[in-house]
Amino acid sequence: MEAQHLLTVEDLLAWPDEPVELIDGEIVQRPMSRFEHGLAQGGLIEETLPLKRHSGPGGWWIIPEISVRYNAHHCPSHDLAGWRKERLPERPAGVIDILPDWVCEILSPGHERKDTLTHFMRLQRAGVPFYWIIAPEDRTLIAYALEAGGYHAVFTAEGSEETSASARIPPFEEIEIDLGALFGEGG
């Protein structure tokens, strides 16, 4: 039996131009973005804009489609990831290898397992403090916080009624997020 050859971040960087990421030593093609995905991603970027404008305490770097190197064989491209500016005061460059304070994945058909299981377990083990999963087609948001080494749901919203409200969701309690903006209401 032949041993499996795990690809590295260097293999990822040398990969021909197409949307891919490195998941557990394997190059995986990124899913094609859909309209609902873009609405959720753009809506969340707009809602967190006040946090991005702050410098110092309370400020955040919130970046879409960012590659994060967790180790030599795992470098996913997150739909959104954020770093507190008090922990990362200077703007980083290139593939970032600093643990995010928050990651948000937006489910794509055929890739749900990657976001709800693979990323969930990997980020939990790595110690990412907050992980959100958004399912645009189901109008669902689940926010997890890391407590005692495991993720626990700290906020959930599902369906038209709950996702039409505003909420203060960890780690962004200092602002109200219009959940309707994440699901394309009013746009």
From TrEMBL:
Q: Where in the sequence is the signal peptide annotated?
A: none
Q: Cross-referenced InterPro entries, in alphabetical order?
A: Nuclease_put_TT1808 (IPR012296), Restrct_endonuc-II-like (IPR011335), Uma2 (IPR008538)
- Determine the domain of life of the protein's source: Bacteria
Q: What is this protein called?
A: Putative restriction endonuclease domain-containing protein
Q: Where is the Putative restriction endonuclease domain?
A: 9-170
